[in-house]
């Protein structure tokens, strides 16, 4: 788990299992977190109320988020990113916030990067600028093609949510 901003941490599945009560956590992975939290095997029907995300209590947001080679569909990923920004904003002032995915290299750092760019803690004129600034803080950031394609294409929209 690495602190990338005041009260904001990026991590892996292992880090998720070690957080304490002082944390609020975004679980940015379908497997195993979203699947276990919602209680399904295989794939969940798109009509399910927790298809994209599931809030458990006040401190756990589970995202049905996968890393794909193809660009992610804005109809699915945009609500996930919007809710993630709201979740971080809600908790970051009085708790530590961990954003994790399986390996901590693509999905979770992309969410943290977006939050930091929105707060102008990174250059944010373009996704490439923000990415370069973020890589200086979090060298492991290696977004998949689907995430990076989505961030590049919808950067202005993402800053506005």
Describe this structure in words.
- With 161 residues, this protein is an alpha/beta fold.
- It has a single domain, classed as Protein-Tyrosine Phosphatase, Chain A.
- The chain has helices spanning 13-16, 30-38, 74-91, 107-118, 127-137, 145-153, 155-160, and strands at 2-5, 8-11, 23-27, 53-56, 60-63, 96-100.
- It has a 6-stranded mixed beta sheet, sandwiched between helices.
- The two termini are 26 Å apart.
- This is Dual specificity phosphatase catalytic domain-containing protein.
- It comes from Chitinophaga pinensis (strain ATCC 43595 / DSM 2588 / LMG 13176 / NBRC 15968 / NCIMB 11800 / UQM 2034).
- At the fold tier of CATH, the topology name is Protein-Tyrosine Phosphatase, Chain A
The CATH architecture is Alpha-Beta Complex
Mean pLDDT: 94
Question: Helical proportion?
Answer: 40-55%
> Separation of termini?
26 Å
Secondary-structure-based class equals alpha/beta
Structurally, the number of domains stands at 1
Largest sheet: 6 strands, mixed
Count of DSSP-assigned helices: 7
Large-scale geometry: globular
- Binned strand content: 15-25%
| Number of separate strands | 6
Uncertain spans, ≥5 residues at pLDDT below 50?
none
Query: Order of SSEs, N→C?
Result: EEHEHEEHEHHHH
CATH superfamily: Protein tyrosine phosphatase superfamily
């Amino acid at each position: 788990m690495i602190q990338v901003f005041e009260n904001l941490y990026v991590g892996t599945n292992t880090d998720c299992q070690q957080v304490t009560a002082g944390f609020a956590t975004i679980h940015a992975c379908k497997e195993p977190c979203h699947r276990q939290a919602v209680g399904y095997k295989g794939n969940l029907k798109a009509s399910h109320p927790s298809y994209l995300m599931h809030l458990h209590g006040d401190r756990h947001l589970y995202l049905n988020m996968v890393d794909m080679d193809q660009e992610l569909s804005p109809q699915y990923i945009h609500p996930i990113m919007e809710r993630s920004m709201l979740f971080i904003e809600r908790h970051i002032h009085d708790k530590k916030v961990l954003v994790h995915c399986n390996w901590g290299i693509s999905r979770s750092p992309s969410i943290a990067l977006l939050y930091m760019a929105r707060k102008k803690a990174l250059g944010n004129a373009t996704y490439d600028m923000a990415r370069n600034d973020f890589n200086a803080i979090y060298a492991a950031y290696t977004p998949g093609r689907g995430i990076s394609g989505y961030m590049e294409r919808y950067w202005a929209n993402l800053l506005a949510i």
